[in-house]
Specification:
alpha+beta; 7-stranded mixed barrel; two-stranded parallel ribbon
Length: 587
């Protein structure tokens, strides 16, 4: 047996065993229908049956072979018959061996250890190799794609790619950035790096700071005894002192450096450092929430606390056997396939076999992948019913607003504009969570100008004239970009200006602005923007909307109508054969 195992390992041969019974219990068993593998959708299990002594010896032999070849993970490649049927329902990606990353682990300027790192965990993404093909022939060669650069003018003048340059948008400005600038901006390093910056207690690096899309396992270089001894000493020293190393990591000379943590990982068969990336300052998101402890209405009772504790205990995904001293994972996520990946290839397979049929619904075994184990679902029913009793849900009835004498006996003949009275419901509609987060606004910014404008008026930190001047300046800057996204942002500003002008009896100021805006649009030929204004119906404020306005509804409607172009009439006259007298009449 030792010779067979040696030759299998030498030839890099991997094995899988399929048995008529599981290896979980050797004292009497049938096929296991454990909840973690969802046997409810792949047919019934075999009836329980005692296994013979010879079968027990065979199980021990299989375990010995698999653990010798693959370690403890080799036992996961031993399947019962019903498990093998379930495995056939799962699409598997082509497994690729991890590439070694050789480097030098440096501590200071005098200590260097030859290491090699492997990707232990990396976020798996289904490569969607989509390509555009001809719908009739399904051939990529029948499609040709050509990119043309044109100026944003009436003639759409074509521009060669060599005459274009990248630009970085900073507010309303575009900062040109050439390829030379981009190369000079890139971080230049001496090469790959795995340098220890220092050490700290493992308790100082909180679990919430772990980030990145991969985990590296760092070993000593192969056939380097000095490196193995040095790295082993570092690993055991970190483990005994309960400390971790803070590391500067760079994959290659062209990659940006990372800061991460390397902590010791010691198993029976090997030991290594495990590297996890840590965040920089810009990666952190700070949020402030009020404390629930200060609110007496949110203080739970002892019965409620004990009920939640019981629910958490009943939903534990770890099953401990105190007598045998074993721990069983009821929901091993590393053994669960990605449902998105499974659904993708289910659809691709169906489309390849049935090109004209609609896609099938999601298969039941995919839906069951992320269901809680049956054992956990059964155990949590009693705690859930207790929680339902202790946390009753009652319908929240909206309190009626208090009616005052002023509301009942209000004077409808009171003079003065209605905007100078108490705040109306329409005025309060602009309140939002963003207004809470923005704090005290001192000026109209370019990020959210419409909301800043309303906030300044609401907080009375600026006069209407000052706030409107700041808003109109931003509108002009947005229009200078001559791009649709900024056109829409300008429309939000204009709508806010119009609404607040009615509320504050500043209708004449808005009407003067809109007239000047139309002249500017015509002079700069921003026809696309004015079409948006017409579609949204943003016109002058009429005297029906505000008493201080002298504009009638007919005049407001006529304001949006396009002006007649006399040059077009002149051209038409010449086309119809008119003479100079006709032209003078037109003038």
């Amino acid at each position: 047996m030792d010779t067979i195992i040696h030759n299998l390992r030498k030839s890099s041969i991997s094995l899988q065993f399929f048995l008529p019974f599981p290896i979980g219990k050797e004292d009497g068993t049938g096929d296991r229908g454990d909840s973690s593998l969802r046997s409810d959708h792949c047919g019934p299990s075999f009836p329980l049956k005692e296994i013979t002594e010879q079968q027990k010896e065979g199980i021990q032999m299989v375990k010995r072979v698999m653990t010798s070849l693959e370690g403890e993970d080799g036992l996961d490649e031993i399947y019962s018959f019903s498990e093998s049927l379930r495995q056939l329902c799962v699409f598997k990606k082509i497994e690729k061996s991890s590439m070694a990353w050789p480097c030098q682990l440096t501590i200071g300027s005098s200590l260097s250890i030859r290491i090699v790192a492997y990707k232990s965990i990396q976020q798996g993404k289904a490569k969607k190799s989509w390509t555009v093909v001809d719908a009739r022939t399904s051939r990529k060669e029948d499609i040709q794609k050509e990119t043309v650069y044109c100026l944003n003018d009436d003639d759409e003048t074509e521009v060669q790619k060599e005459d274009t340059i990248q630009g970085f948008r900073y507010g309303s400005d575009i900062i040109p950035f050439s390829k030379v600038d981009e190369e000079q901006m890139k971080y230049k390093s001496e090469g790959k790096c795995f340098s220890v910056l220092g050490f700290c207690r493992s308790s100082q690096v909180h679990r919430k700071y772990y980030m990145g899309n991969q985990v590296l396992k760092v070993f000593a270089a192969k056939d380097d005894e000095a490196a193995a001894v040095a790295l082993s000493s570092l690993i055991h020293a970190l483990d005994e002192l309960d400390m971790v190393a803070i590391v500067r990591y760079a994959y290659c000379k062209n990659s940006n450096p990372q800061v991460g943590m390397a902590f010791p990982y010691i198993k029976d068969t090997y030991e290594c450092l495990v590297y996890v990336q840590l965040p920089f300052m810009e990666d952190l998101r700070q949020y402030m929430f009020s404390s629930l402890k200060n609110n007496k209405k949110c203080t739970p009772t002892e019965a409620q606390l004990s009920a939640i504790d019981a629910l958490i205990d009943s939903m534990s995904l770890v099953k401990k056997d105190e007598e045998e001293g074993t721990v069983q994972d009821l929901f091993p996520t590393t053994k669960i396939p990605d449902p998105q990946f499974q659904r993708l290839f289910q659809c691709l397979l169906h489309r390849a076999l049935h090109p004209q049929e609609p896609l099938p619904p999601i298969q039941q075994h995919i839906l069951n992948m992320l269901d809680p184990p049956t054992e956990v679902t059964a155990k949590c029913q009693i705690p859930l019913s207790k929680i339902k009793t202790l946390f009753p849900l009652t319908e929240a009835i909206k309190k009626k607003e208090q009616v005052t004498a002023q509301d009942i006996f209000q004077d409808n003949h009171e003079e003065g504009p209605t905007s100078k009275k108490l705040k109306t419901k329409e005025g309060r509609a602009h309140f939002s969570l963003s207004s809470l987060a923005e704090g005290s606004v001192t000026k109209v910014g370019s990020v959210n100008p419409a909301e800043n404008f309303r906030t300044l008026l609401r907080q009375k930190t600026a006069s209407f004239e000052e706030a409107s001047n700041q808003l109109t300046n931003h509108i002009e800057q947005f229009l200078d970009t001559n791009e649709t996204p900024y056109f829409m942002k300008s429309m939000d500003c204009i709508k806010a200006f119009r609404e607040e002008a009615i509320q504050f009896s500043e209708e004449q100021r808005f009407n003067d602005f809109l007239k000047a805006l139309r002249e500017k649009v015509e002079s700069k030929q921003l026809n696309n923007f004015w079409e948006i204004v017409i579609q949204d119906g943003i016109t002058l404020i009429t005297k029906d909307e505000a008493p201080g306005s002298s504009v009638t509804a007919e005049e407001a409607k006529k304001f949006l109508a396009p002006k007649e172009n006399p040059s077009e009439d002149t051209a038409a006259a010449f086309e119809e054969g008119g003479d100079v007298d006709d032209l003078l009449d037109l003038i």
